Amino acid sequence: MISKFQMAASCLSAVTEVIRQMGGTVYGRVRIQKTAYFLQRMGMAELEGIDFFYHHYGPFSWTVAESLLDGERCGALREEAKPLVDDRQAYAYKLGEDVDEKVDEVSPASRELVARLVGQVRDEHWRTLELASTIDFLEQREGLDRERAVSRALGLKPACRDHKDDALRLLDMLKLPAS
User: Fold this and answer.
1) Tens of pLDDT, residues 89-120
2) pLDDT tens digits along 134-172
3) CA end-to-end span of the chain
4) C-alpha span between 15 and 83 (Å, rounded)
5) Minimal CA–CA distance to 76: which of 92, 94, 96?
6) What highest taxon heads this organism's lineage (predicted)?
7) Strands, E assignment, 34-135
8) I need a surface site. Which of 59, 86, 106, 174 has the fewest CB within 10 A?
C-alpha cells in the first residue's frame, strides 16, 4: 500500500510535469484540478489512487490541492495570487528554481500522456474543463448516460451553459475509458 507521503510526492511530480508542459505557468486552480482528473482517468500512474469527489467546480482532490501547497513550501512551485473584484483570487502556478532537484520526474509514459492531454486542453476555457470533467464524473460515479450527465451537469453549473459544445467536443477527443 502506498503511503500518504508517497502519494503526495507522486501527485506533485504529476502537477509539476503539467506546469512544465504548459510552458512553465498554469493559470487557475480549476485548470490544474481538472487536468489532474483527466490524467488520472487516462491512466497516469503517478495519479493512481488519488481520490476525486464532487465539489463546486467539479471533480476535486485534496491530494492535488495539498500538492500545490507542498510544492510551494519546498520551493518547487511558486503561487501568485491576484485579487478579483468579488473577493476571490486568481491563482497562477509557476515552476520554482531547482524544481528538478526537489521533485521526482514522471515516467516516460506519463510524460507522453501529459503531452497528449496538454495539447488538447491548453487553450480550452476553464469553464469548458469544469463542465467536461463534471459530465465525465457523473457518468463514471453515478452511472448516468451522456445525455443525462450533460443535463445534470448543466443544472449544477448554469454558468457553464455557453461551454457545452466545447465540453462535449473535448470529451469526444479525449476518448476516456469507461471505468
Assistant:
1) 889 999 998 898 889 999 999 999 999 999 99
2) 999 999 999 999 999 999 999 999 999 999 999 999 999
3) 21
4) 23
5) 96
6) Bacteria
7) 53-55, 58-60, 77-83, 89-95
8) 86
